[in-house]
Amino acid sequence: MTDLSAVKAALKAQEIETPSWGYGNSGTRFKVFAQEGVPRDPYEKIEDAAQVHAATGVAPRVSLHIPWDRVDDFAALAAFARERGLQVGAVNSNTFQDDDFRLGSVAHADPKVRRKAVEHLLECVDIMDATGSRDLKLWFADGTNYPGQDDITGRQDRLAEALAEVYARLGDEQRMILEYKLFEPAFYHTDVPDWGTSYAHCLKLGPKAKVVVDTGHHAPGTNIEFIVAFLLREDRLGAFDFNSRFYADDDLMVGSADPFQLFRILHEVAKNDGFAPGRQVAFMLDQCHNIEGKIPAVIRSVMNVQEATAKALLVDLDALRSAQSAGDVLGANAVLMDAYNTDVRPLLREVREEQGLDPDPLAAYRATGWQQRIVADRVGGTQAGWGA
Amino acid sequence: MTDLSAVKAALKAQEIETPSWGYGNSGTRFKVFAQEGVPRDPYEKIEDAAQVHAATGVAPRVSLHIPWDRVDDFAALAAFARERGLQVGAVNSNTFQDDDFRLGSVAHADPKVRRKAVEHLLECVDIMDATGSRDLKLWFADGTNYPGQDDITGRQDRLAEALAEVYARLGDEQRMILEYKLFEPAFYHTDVPDWGTSYAHCLKLGPKAKVVVDTGHHAPGTNIEFIVAFLLREDRLGAFDFNSRFYADDDLMVGSADPFQLFRILHEVAKNDGFAPGRQVAFMLDQCHNIEGKIPAVIRSVMNVQEATAKALLVDLDALRSAQSAGDVLGANAVLMDAYNTDVRPLLREVREEQGLDPDPLAAYRATGWQQRIVADRVGGTQAGWGA
Amino acid sequence: MTDLSAVKAALKAQEIETPSWGYGNSGTRFKVFAQEGVPRDPYEKIEDAAQVHAATGVAPRVSLHIPWDRVDDFAALAAFARERGLQVGAVNSNTFQDDDFRLGSVAHADPKVRRKAVEHLLECVDIMDATGSRDLKLWFADGTNYPGQDDITGRQDRLAEALAEVYARLGDEQRMILEYKLFEPAFYHTDVPDWGTSYAHCLKLGPKAKVVVDTGHHAPGTNIEFIVAFLLREDRLGAFDFNSRFYADDDLMVGSADPFQLFRILHEVAKNDGFAPGRQVAFMLDQCHNIEGKIPAVIRSVMNVQEATAKALLVDLDALRSAQSAGDVLGANAVLMDAYNTDVRPLLREVREEQGLDPDPLAAYRATGWQQRIVADRVGGTQAGWGA
Amino acid sequence: MTDLSAVKAALKAQEIETPSWGYGNSGTRFKVFAQEGVPRDPYEKIEDAAQVHAATGVAPRVSLHIPWDRVDDFAALAAFARERGLQVGAVNSNTFQDDDFRLGSVAHADPKVRRKAVEHLLECVDIMDATGSRDLKLWFADGTNYPGQDDITGRQDRLAEALAEVYARLGDEQRMILEYKLFEPAFYHTDVPDWGTSYAHCLKLGPKAKVVVDTGHHAPGTNIEFIVAFLLREDRLGAFDFNSRFYADDDLMVGSADPFQLFRILHEVAKNDGFAPGRQVAFMLDQCHNIEGKIPAVIRSVMNVQEATAKALLVDLDALRSAQSAGDVLGANAVLMDAYNTDVRPLLREVREEQGLDPDPLAAYRATGWQQRIVADRVGGTQAGWGA
């Protein structure tokens, strides 16, 4: 039997990090549809993130993206966040939008370009120092579009060298978390295409290097929860980038394409003690809201993670292990499905009420009038997007 | 035995259409890397296309894209092309970049948006009239990102209605060619996701409606040559959009990711008489050159199609049919592979020399000094891209 | 608001057909693990199917597979079924296990082999006459393993000819339902790989020919509910073959791999009136239980379809359409998700009790002692499997 | 410039291992089509393998599969092979066909089943001792079909324990090579699904543990040559299992589905010195010939590997590196494609003639009359297949 008060306690303790870029404009290569009220600067993004935290109570951190979130005084930005109940989460580097990075950054054939990329990464650690951020999140767009375009192993050498230099710069409490991605924007090969590549680099770097699992970055048919379980077993799971996709890296709201997969992933987290603070697994959203309202979409995403977490916590592990040990295929599967099929929305409403929150975060957000206010106020200036 | 003079004649008669947008800047949602010398207007695009035709001798047509190629006087644009040895090929509509099209165009729930989309399509037919173009090429970004977002069958009804109105506007010698695409920019469902959907609409519209097979628009594992063969059997293959992809719609140079697949596709075309002018199959490139030089990449792509065509024409169909009839699995496969394994580059050099062309189109292009000239001359103004 | 009594009525009226082969042994190319108590003949399979119907109340039909279910007196077999409350459902042909069919059946290059295949299909219609079956279900293993092995369009001609002959033999109330499959056991191309091919053949055959959607037979990323919606719009959806897969055609229990997809499919059915008896959509299971207990797995599968159906029926279509018309992306999605997130198990328990059934079909089955009885009784003889 | 005499020397030194099971009957779960002349025992398989070596000159090793190739006296079997110019290659274990292995072998929840599996693996090492085989090739069918069926990390623990025991048993010159596979026959998760998992286990085991790359065991879109390059860089590439697939693990002839991919893989091998004997990379076929003649199919496969190797060796690495360093995307790709587009069949005919072989291995095989002889002689007895 599952202990409901423990489940509630775990749900209250959950922390989901939201991305600053999720509040800005975004789109596809075909079109970015701008929305009214979108932030013009990092301060406004943090204000929006604070709304999400106010409505849900479980989103106390916001990831930054450099240079999109570059400000003159990062300590001031962090203070601005703290005043609104938020911490600065991961600092995300960007080595894909400078013209010099057309053929790569840390893995580029030209040492001058690599130098530029490494300097950017080191600057990101400076920003971590200034903001109190723990995690340097690295995703590299590096790769090639055509067979033969560059040397795959040569690029690995350069990548390893760059990572080592940046790793050496980390403080004792800081971490490097390394994301992998099957494809895009490099189309023939990417330099960190899968968890194995990220894991192998992390092993060589040291204990402060961990793998980021972005739920949208796998080939079709990949069993993501296996990877999560494996990395937890190896103590190398650093963070999640949550989002959904039906086919490619679509950046849809987490839980919107395959809620059962999200549940299975979080079941492995729960079963392998991945929610324990000591494991330091960061639960981040990494999504972009191209056609839907941004703040409500983030709130909905946070709720989707909460609901999948609640279901995962409801799995009767004793019954599960008993059926597994007995080789009872249908019985073991049924234990899992019982939890999944439970409607946990009443439980979460209860949890929220016990936390002094509105049981319905979306209604709570609507009631604030924030949306109308930003639409009215954020006029003029340049809306934030992937380009700024 | 294959008749080599017939092969040569077929190669000389081949016509490959190049896209105006392939000469402009393009990229991914992450970054568009601008290149020097890129055209600023449709006239300059046509000048570049003329260079490709001059170098290869088989690229006498250029596709337009509206509004990217909108000019005040389309008849003048067509005349400008003719003076350079080119014809205007397909007119490509664009119903995905106007802010009104955030949730779709011809399938949008709002009749006003649909009206706007249909008016655009009708304008494209006007441009066909003005330029002498035969083909209205329709690709719709329509679809949804989230389950439930809109009604799938309702959208089909609206799509069918719009297509019917535009079809009725076509002249006797004009065609509507309807492209399908598995995903992107719509991520949950697209309104014309596969050849079956396009085919079903074409059947209802009439004989002037045909299917466009874009080689990059299929789910993994799809046998594209089967579709090509099936559509040729039904006389519903209108055109190819050639490009390559390793995973998604990557718009890489045709033949660069899977040259054997390209060969198999063109083998079905050859075997089913698809190169015959009466079949009116248009062989178009639809690619974008994000990191490589644009004109050389188009030339290379044209050469790749030529090489795959040459191999396809070299298949000994008598030997193939004989082995097929005998149930000789290895023998039949070997006949096909014999043609594929042939190095056809000497044959194509010969063909080019017989046509009075340089046997090496890329060297010929380099020798013109065109690239240096456009880099020097095309300074200032706004470079063409997907946005203009 | 959804009318709960209408939902209940629809759930009580639902009919799910189970496959005779689901009760026999099955496995992979690597190994068939035999189970105790498995039927030795079609009569015993029907007895097992009757247990499923007794426990669930919604499985009144059983599909036959010829020759696996060949008996001397099919009328007697049908009577045996009727005595147990069952009807004979679809008759499934088998043109893939005779040695003559190594390179195909109805599409084989050799007319003698095609004749043999057609004779088998005609025999299946005889069996339909004898058993009162309405549906001839056709799935062809035809295809090739290697490029060039046979002629794709030639095979289409032969397939079309065979289908036409069999179609002409159908009685007024009989139907031909044509299944498609992406791959396996043919690995390079299959002769009916996708819904478009099946649909095109059905169109030419006539109104008694319909498409079968097997949920496991698509390329990754295919939106199956789109196909379902499209075919319902065209009145060409004949039947479902329900099962699940994570990667290939794994024949897992329906709803076990992606319950949200099953819900979306049934939402399209509900929305497009596909549950209405007049639409004649057959809801069949087509799965094999390799490692789990067979009868309980079938019961569980039936329950999974019921639960997904209940959720689909609970979708508030008025609210959905209203949000869709308003372009409210998040709102429309939320309406759908509200139904999906509902725990419908209490409702189904209620429905069963109102029907005089045990609210827990699996417990009801266990309570019968049937499993112990067949394990004890069905000793000796040859267990049924794919080979017999 | 490539040194042609070095290329020839490398081609003459190449060694391709063929699998004993490739000479026996095989099929799909739907049907095994038996062929005339198929071996009845391991001795006859070795005789067939010797024919392949006689015809090609580069297939001096044959892999065994236990228990399919179990004999009373393995030393005698090895001597029998040596008399025919062959060595025993890898010994392949089988922990998937015993009834006890329904839910797994080394990762099974029941220690008795694990013991049985480990004993089998240890027996395989005994057979290595007796036959002089260097490589214990491990592929585990272990995994689950349903979420929750068993504990993913628990299974990793058990797997690791079993591997460690077997690793400790290896002689100084013996290796353990560990294969990974995305899916099948386990359909929800496999215990070694990807190279990362195999690599992580090998790291912990020690330097005698290496990864096997089976070209058919990846998710769609996976860049296999990246994995090969990465493993060579880490000195953890133990062997290839060559075969082809269009969609799943189809076991088609290597090079038949995507010859360009095979070339790219072997280009990485060549570039990273993987053909050097000291690297100890084993080039094995692992395919089954379901509908085509078996010995000719193996010969054709060997030739396909030779042709792809020849092309890989012809890549002008100096020109390639020069273009890569210069960031010349099209130029670098062109260097690779120049080698790929070369017709290397004349070169290979020359190589064979210099080795005293018939330039056409398939004709040479046909000329032996071996096929007619085995069809005539191998009558009666039980044909070898996956079951024996």
Automatic annotation (TrEMBL), chains A, B, C, D:
<dbReference type="InterPro" id="IPR050337">
    <property type="entry name" value="L-rhamnose_isomerase"/>
</dbReference>
<keyword id="KW-0479">Metal-binding</keyword>
<dbReference type="InterPro" id="IPR013022">
    <property type="entry name" value="Xyl_isomerase-like_TIM-brl"/>
</dbReference>
<feature type="domain" description="Xylose isomerase-like TIM barrel">
    <location>
        <begin position="71"/>
        <end position="267"/>
    </location>
</feature>
<dbReference type="GO" id="GO:0008740">
    <property type="term" value="F:L-rhamnose isomerase activity"/>
</dbReference>
<keyword id="KW-0464">Manganese</keyword>
<dbReference type="InterPro" id="IPR036237">
    <property type="entry name" value="Xyl_isomerase-like_sf"/>
</dbReference>
<protein>
    <submittedName>
        <fullName>L-rhamnose isomerase</fullName>
        <ecNumber>5.3.1.14</ecNumber>
    </submittedName>
</protein>
<keyword id="KW-0413">Isomerase</keyword>
<dbReference type="InterPro" id="IPR013457">
    <property type="entry name" value="Rhamnose_iso-rel"/>
</dbReference>
<dbReference type="Pfam" id="PF01261">
    <property type="entry name" value="AP_endonuc_2"/>
</dbReference>
